[in-house]
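Revision sheet: structure tokens.
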Amino acid sequence: MTTRIELADAITRIAKGDRKALEFVYRATSAKLFGICLRISGDRGEAEDALQDVYVNLWNAAGRFDAARASPVSWLAVFARNRTIDRLRRRRRLDASAPLEAAEHVADAAPLAEDALLAGEENARIHTCLETLEERQRGVIRTAFFDGVTYADLAARQDVPLGTVKSWVRRGLARLKQCLDA
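Predicted:
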């Protein structure tokens, strides 16, 4: 399993023109990013093209990555999401043969201002409540849910039984729920 540090280091090397680092990042993240592209586009061919765009653009934009602001997987996931949406928008603009009435069925993906404000407040509450957890619970919950690491991988990293990691997460989530409900 590739660690966050290894991916961050590889992205830094990509910014310096290291092709092997790009290959490493591709092998470590392409399955996950392809899933994101496919889920958004709904079309396998479009998802494959979007994924290719992700890595081409990564080659050019790797210097903008800041490990202090985001995990490599999160940053790449946003990259994949945005590339796929851009491709879909571009394709819809090119498809000018659709009647004007077809536009009423196209959803606006942007959240309403009120919803964005509420989501921001909720996000702040979650992070505040996360800080009330003991360190190992907070660590495994953040790693599992924000970085997408499996419980089995967490158990291996922590050198503890799988059941222990599951208990930490379960208890931590229960405390998190109590904090959020308060």
